[in-house]
Design a protein that fits this description.
The protein is mainly alpha-helical and about 625 residues long. It is built from 27 helices and eight strands. α3 crosses α15 and α8 packs antiparallel against α16. About 45% of the residues are buried.
């Protein structure tokens, strides 16, 4: 190879390396924006597993989608539309490989509870409001994801979720009883009003409708017990349909209502009606649905990730769910979230990547085109019976029992949320429960325990002081068992002042701070108040065990200078060794309590130390303590 060829080869190699590096750089930049780039290359190896899981999911969502649409007050096909486009978008832009998005029970009942007082369920205006509500829900979710506010979901406690879902289950059941009894009455927005209307009209029930519902319900229960892996709801609805059509009960004479034919078409594209008055009306419930949907999706994704070993990005899930609802609202889909049932079966069916959700959505479109004419024979009582089963499964009796056993506070949160779901606007139940949870949490953290500590006589380990353990007459030790933020400062000051009244002879106090993880401006000022209080009465106060982050805040705020470096120690024992020799040795010589291990040494040399200290003009302030090390972050 001549020199010219070598140079050309070298240039080509350098250019190739530069292009490769540039490609890797773009991949690193693109993958967070388009998360499907992470798993898409794997599909060529996993497509068989994903295709089988997708087929299973498509069959499963067929009866569920129709049932959930009925719960939401929407025509049946909208439940299936909601399992198509939103599922694809959520899979492409979410972080979970197994989460399947689509219509869910909880969101369906919130949509119904929100819109039933604004328009007649199933009407054109009702559908328009549902699409706008979905769009607003997606905007909220997307904005929360972009703002990196995934941690907000942690404020919706399990007690709130349990109370809400239990209340929602009863609302769902109550809304379907008219179909079970074959009553042609309009839905009432309130739980009590709905029951009153049902009771007032119960005498007009249709025995054939009740029979179809009972047979379907029995079929669901038997199939789930005998063959739990079979699609029990789908088979039960087929049985109900055969019963209704076989006896001709679907004609006007016998009055068993049927769903009617579904349009054999793909989800139609239509812009939501962006009316300013409607936006103002739906903004508040949209935020509640957004929070509920995100809570469902993230919790389901995380629970499956525990088994799959995948790492879930909560903020990316927010973005995926938001985009799925925004885009879905243009394709006749109402608000969606992650489905626990379909996601769990998707994982159990062997899905490897999020392509399974894409396959499920595409296959569902094909199934809809094939079976749409046959849905016309599906009796409403059968649908209602299946929905009653769904509602029953929403109630987690075991979890309710655990909450009631473990915590009265959590029980109260659950009960208030449950009652709010039944008797108030449904979306406000989430707000009320969440605010109550936060309030109880703040109440707890606003009162961090301030505990007097003494060494146990045998082990010399510091334990919480009890009447049987002796306290040093001159020096006390206390711990602050929580953060020093604005809501807690007054309580901490009050508790330390109370310790002073319990042990009035103790004019010196060591405060152990190892359990303080955060301190704000109010906490810094509170420390100054506590120090001033002790020093004003001729005493002194010392601190031990500051964490680096807390120490840095105290340093920047000037509190370290106010305390004095010689009053800050790395550990309680170090503080004791430095402070005890400067106590009043007259008292130490005559003391028989032996509270601290240093007391024996002090007593033996007490007289000598006391005589030396008599010559010191400023008693107790001439020593330099063993300071905590200077941290690298300072």
């Amino acid at each position: 190879m001549n020199t010219k060829e070598s140079v050309i080869t070298g240039v080509e190699a350098t250019a190739g390396a530069d292009l490769s590096a540039l490609g890797e750089k773009y991949k690193r930049w693109l993958k967070p924006v388009f998360p499907f780039l992470k798993w898409m290359p794997e599909v060529r190896y996993t497509w068989k597993n994903d295709l089988f899981a997708g087929l299973t999911g498509a069959v499963l969502v067929l009866p569920q989608g129709v049932a959930f649409a009925m719960i939401a007050g929407m025509p049946p096909q909208y439940g299936l539309y909601s399992a198509m486009i939103p599922a694809i978008i959520a899979a492409l832009f979410g972080s979970s490989r197994h989460l399947i998005s689509g219509p869910t029970t909880a969101i369906s009942i919130v949509i119904f509870g929100t819109l039933v007082g604004m328009a007649e369920p199933g009407s054109g205006h009702y559908i328009e409001l549902a699409m706008l509500l979905t769009f607003l829900t997606g905007i909220f979710q997307f904005a929360l994801g972009l703002s990196r506010l995934g941690g907000l979901i942690n404020f919706v406690s399990h007690s709130v979720v349990t109370g809400f879902t239990t209340g929602a289950a009863l609302l769902i059941a109550a809304s379907q009883l008219k179909h079970v009894f074959g009553l042609t009455i309009k839905n009432k927005p309130g739980f009590v009003e709905g029951l009153q209307q049902l009771i007032a009209n119960i005498g007009q029930y249709n025995p054939r409708s009740l029979t179809v519902a009972a047979v379907t319900l029995a079929a669901v229960i038997v199939i789930h017990k005998v063959k739990p892996k079979w699609p029990g709801m789908l088979l039960a609805m087929v049985i109900g349909s055969v019963l209704t059509v076989g006896f001709g009960w679907n004609n006007h004479e016998y009055g068993v209502s049927v769903v009617g034919a579904l349009p054999a078409s793909l989800p139609p594209f239509k812009l939501p009606n962006f009316s300013l008055s409607s936006i103002q009306l739906l903004a508040t419930p949209a935020l509640a649905i957004a929070m509920l949907g995100l809570m469902e999706a993230v919790s389901i994704a995380r629970s499956i990730a525990l088994h799959s070993g995948q790492r879930i990005d909560g903020n990316q899930e927010f973005i995926g769910q938001g985009l799925s609802n925004v885009i879905g609202s243009f394709f006749s889909a109402y608000a969606c979230s992650g489905s626990f049932t379909r996601s769990g079966i998707n994982f159990q069916s062997g899905a490897k990547t999020a392509a399974a959700a894409l396959f499920a959505a595409v296959l569902l479109e094909g199934i809809l085109l094939l079976v749409a004419p046959y849905v016309a024979y599906l009796p409403m009582p059968s649908m209602a019976a299946v929905i009653l089963v769904v509602a029953y499964k929403l109630i987690n009796f075991h979890h309710i029992g655990d909450i009631m056993k473990i915590s009265r506070a959590d029980t109260s949160v659950m009960a208030v949320t449950f009652l709010a779901a039944l008797f108030l606007e449904l979306e406000f139940a989430i707000y009320i429960g969440t605010l109550l949870s936060i309030g109880l949490y703040l109440k707890k953290t606003a009162k961090p325990a301030v505990l007097a500590k003494v060494p146990e006589p045998g082990t010399r380990k510091f334990v919480t002081s009890t009447p049987g353990l002796s306290q040093c007459p001159q020096l006390g030790v206390a711990t602050i068992e929580g953060d020093m933020y604005f809501a807690a400062t007054f309580y901490v000051e009050e508790q330390i002042s109370r310790l002073k009244t319990y042990y009035p002879g103790q004019n010196k106090l060591i405060v152990a701070t190892s359990n303080i993880n955060h301190i704000d401006t109010a906490g810094c000022e509170s420390f100054k108040n506590i120090i001033n209080e002790y020093r004003r009465n001729g005493g002194d106060i010392y601190f031990s065990g500051f964490k680096p982050k807390v120490f840095n805040i105290l340093l920047v705020s000037g509190v370290v200078d106010f305390i004095g470096l010689d009053h800050i120690f790395d550990h309680k024992k170090t503080a004791l060794k430095s402070i005890i020799p400067f106590l009043d040795m007259k008292k130490c010589v005559n003391c028989q309590l032996n509270v601290f291990s240093e007391c024996d040494i002090n007593r033996s040399i007490g007289l000598k130390i006391y005589n030396e200290r008599e010559a010191v003009s400023h008693i107790g302030h001439s020593h330099v303590g063993h300071c905590i090390p200077v941290y690298e972050s300072m």
